[in-house]
Design a protein that fits this description.
Blueprint: H1 2-35, E1 44-49, E2 57-59, H2 61-64, E3 65-69, H3 74-80, H4 83-90, E4 97-99, H5 102-105, E5 109-111, E6 116-120, E7 125-130, E8 140-144, E9 167-168, H6 175-178, E10 187-199, E11 201-206, E12 211-222, E13 232-243, E14 250-254, E15 260-272, E16 291-300, E17 306-308, E18 319-322, E19 329-330, E20 334-335, E21 342-343, H7 345-350, E22 359-363, H8 370-383, E23 387-392, H9 403-420, E24 426-431, H10 450-460, E25 469-474, H11 490-503, E26 512-517, H12 530-545, E27 550-553, E28 562-564, E29 567-569, E30 574-576, E31 582-585, H13 587-599, E32 607-610, E33 612-613, E34 625-631, E35 637-643, E36 650-657, E37 662-663, E38 668-675, E39 679-682, E40 689-693, E41 697-702, E42 709-711, E43 715-721
Helix pairs in contact: 8-9, 9-10, 11-12, 12-13
């Protein structure tokens, strides 16, 4: 222990020396710039439109700037929820926290408590509802594989289980629970053969309940399942692919005399036999929807025999995407290995990680039941834990759920949760990190926007008021193609996607929230270089400039480094070893410091954001310095300036303009900067680290009309002070 303390003291002493030297250099450089304007390029102008009526956004950092925590191993949970790690995690300055639901992401049921009841108590199976009784604190949340996933592989790396049986659709999407005709929520299975194949027949082995009315269709086009870029083509029914009054069982359908070459087939089901599955008739959920044991495309040979589609060596195997999955499971389906748990709500709320602020929490919806979601909320409120927002489900677009199906579930869950507490703020859909609209196959009116159709569904059912916020994730870049110029695109990407959701019909009074966020959805080297710091500052600034309401960066806990396509990196603000000993900080940690502890003021109240801009561009027209201006509750004006020029510093003067006059910083200006002069990532394999590794440099500089400020190359700089004539 003494050796560890000595290393920490040595590191802090080194930082103090480096910071002191940098501070003297900074002051000297700034004074030289003020007296000898020729030593630096002629100052550019940062213009702030300070007209009182021109506020573009208002936000309170204690509800608007947060972080997140995701799935962990059992050992990780034991290490993360300790006073030292919690203290370090909070030191980045983020306010509230959002709890991510990786279990539902991976097509599994979660038990927020193991204390509860099964719908089939005798066999410990069926549909599980957690108990609201206050017993021993909950430390771990376990995942349960879904047997009725069957052959379906849609989703993100489904949690494996020992008892996969057949595919069955979600009973909560049937008329028994939606109050609508089953034809309003058609269920489907898509067969993806991974390459174009000739098809003239299909073999289906139905389980119960089976479809009495269904279509067998082929996709004419490309990318039938690409909801991010948008499907390109249309579904067409085979000549003999429309079935009425079907009887189930094992059937071989001769769909066409001449084979059709296609990659995708779809079985679209609109009417059920409503016969009960193998679990019996005691529970109506066993007797609604659709179930398939096996499905295979093929052709008919010369003798009329069915010949299943085959794959050449090296070809990918056929996969099956389903519209929904029945959340039925049993105690035997538990995934209780030590490497995959979620934090129990008791340890989550009592550890200090919530920063004594209301937390955003999830409820499972795609693979859960409304009674269990309501019980979870009742339990949390019984404990006296503070809930800020509730996210409903997890990434339905990534599971190819239809917007009307998500909407039908949303209404049922909202009804159950609001019976517990009508004041709770519910939202979603928690889209995957995309830069464009989510586009699906057209409905009867030709509408293809996922969000637009979801909003329309809620509105048509008189339930739009249940949508208290819209949330989405932001992972804007391909992890292996990031270059320095990629940095220039972030403000436009963020503001564009915010506008997309509004154009889709999200009402202006419904807040937009980024609830999970990083450079890319996969780990990549730039996540720990100075690139990530500049990106994060631009990310946050452009989000609020575009009208966003709450921003959560991911994740809060320390992690080790791993090799990636662009070098060694960590997801986290901190680099740690396997024992969670923090070995150093990453650039997003220092960017968070600049955002949360310098630019804005936590525990203070609402900040007003005003338009600001610079005219510093490169030869290709890329803006090299971005600017984000807020008027803080303490009366200070605070500018966050991001110099995205990798090689050159820039000199700026700042003018605040309103309809009456031009004003300037008056009195001392707090100048804080962090960039490539304070932080360099050393890519040294498992021993990768930053050297130097911060911290930001602070100085007090004079204001006034002639004040000039030097923005170091590749840096984030905050200027903060009073402005003469502006309150």
């Amino acid at each position: 222990m003494q050796k560890v303390i000595s290393r920490i003291h040595a590191r802090n002493l080194k930082r103090l020396v480096v910071t002191t030297i940098a501070l003297f250099c900074l002051i000297a450089e700034s004074r030289t710039a003020l007296s000898q304007s020729g030593s630096v390029a002629q100052p550019a102008t940062v213009r702030v439109d300070a007209t009182p009526g021109h506020i573009i956004n208002s936000f309170d950092p204690d509800s608007a700037l947060g972080t997140s925590i995701d799935v962990l191993s059992r050992n990780d949970i034991n290490k993360v929820y300790t006073p030292h790690i919690v203290q370090e995690s909070l030191s980045a300055g983020w306010g509230p926290i959002t709890y991510r639901n990786n279990t539902e992401l991976r097509m599994a049921a979660w038990h927020w408590t193991e204390d509860g009841k099964w719908s089939d108590g005798a066999h410990k199976s069926g549909y599980f509802t957690g108990s609201t009784e206050l017993k021993e604190p909950i430390r771990y949340i376990l995942a349960y594989a879904l047997p009725h996933r069957g052959f379906a592989t849609s989703g993100d790396r489904p949690v494996q289980g020992p008892n996969l049986t057949y595919w069955k659709s979600n009973p909560y999407l049937t008329s028994k629970f939606t109050g609508e005709s089953d034809s309003q929520h058609p269920q489907w299975v898509i067969v993806d053969m991974k390459a174009d194949k000739p098809v003239s027949a299909l073999r289906i082995v139905w389980a119960s309940p089976y479809a009495t009315s269904y279509h067998v269709e082929y996709w004419a086009g490309t990318d039938a399942l690409d909801f991010d870029a948008g499907p390109k083509g249309e579904w067409k029914a085979f000549p003999s692919g429309v079935l009425q009054n079907a009887q189930g069982g094992s059937v071989t359908l001769k769909l066409t005399a001449t084979p059709v070459t296609t990659r995708y087939l779809r079985v679209l089901m609109t009417e059920s036999s409503n016969t009960c599955d193998e679990h019996g008739s005691d529970d109506v959920r066993n007797c609604v929807g659709y179930a398939i044991q096996h499905i295979a495309p093929g052709t008919t040979g010369g003798s009329g025999d069915f010949v299943e589609v085959t794959h050449d060596p090296g070809e990918k195997r056929t996969s099956y995407t389903a519209s929904s999955i029945d959340p039925w499971h049993s105690a035997e389906d538990v995934n209780d290995g030590g490497n995959y748990q979620h934090s129990g709500f008791d340890i989550f709320f009592t550890s200090g990680l919530t920063n004594n602020l209301p937390a955003m929490i999830p409820v499972t919806m795609l693979y859960g039941i409304p009674e269990d979601a309501a019980a979870q909320i009742a339990y949390i409120e019984k404990r006296g834990y503070r809930i800020g927002y509730i996210e409903m489900g997890e990434e339905p677009d990534g599971k190819h759920a239809m917007p009307e199906d998500y909407g039908a579930l949303y209404i049922q869950w909202a009804t159950a949760i609001h019976k517990v507490d009508p004041k709770l703020k519910l939202g979603g859909p928690i889209f995957e990190g995309v830069n464009e609209d989510i586009r699906v196959w057209p409905d009867a009116q030709g509408r293809i926007s996922w969000m637009g159709r979801f909003v329309a569904y809620l509105k048509a059912h008189g339930r739009l008021s249940d949508l208290a916020f819209v949330s989405f994730e932001h992972y804007p870049f391909d992890p292996c193609t990031i270059s320095w110029k990629t940095l220039y695109t972030e403000p436009q990407l963020m503001k564009h996607i915010l506008q997309v959701w509004r154009d889709d019909g999200v009402p202006k009074n419904v807040p937009l929230m980024v609830t999970e966020n990083h450079l890319a959805a996969s780990l990549t080297g730039p996540m720990t270089t100075i690139f990530a710091a500049l990106w994060l500052a631009d990310n946050v600034g452009s989000f609020f400039e575009g009208g966003g309401a709450a921003f959560y960066h991911s994740p809060i806990q320390p992690q080790g480094v791993q090799n990636t396509c662009l070098g060694w990196a960590s997801w986290s603000n901190f680099v740690s070893d396997e024992n969670y000993t923090i070995k150093g900080y990453t650039s997003p940690y220092f960017a968070a410091h600049m955002i949360n502890l310098e630019w804005v003021q936590h525990r203070a109240g609402v900040h007003d954001m005003f338009p600001s801009s610079t005219d510093i561009k490169d030869a290709e027209g890329n803006v090299l310095v971005t600017s984000y201006a807020v008027h803080r509750p303490d009366g200070n004006w605070s500018l966050m300036l991001v110099n995205r020029d990798e090689s050159n510093p820039h000199s700026v003067r700042v003018v605040f303009e309103d309809s009456k006059r031009a004003s300037f910083f008056s009195g001392p200006v707090t100048f804080v900067t962090f960039g490539s002069e304070q932080y360099v990532w050393q890519n040294e394999g498992p021993n990768s680290h930053a050297d130097p590794d911060g911290p930001p440099v602070t100085a007090s500089l004079p204001g006034g009309p002639q004040a000039t400020f030097i923005l170091p190359k590749a840096s984030i700089t905050v200027l903060r002070g009073k402005v003469n004539g502006l309150k």
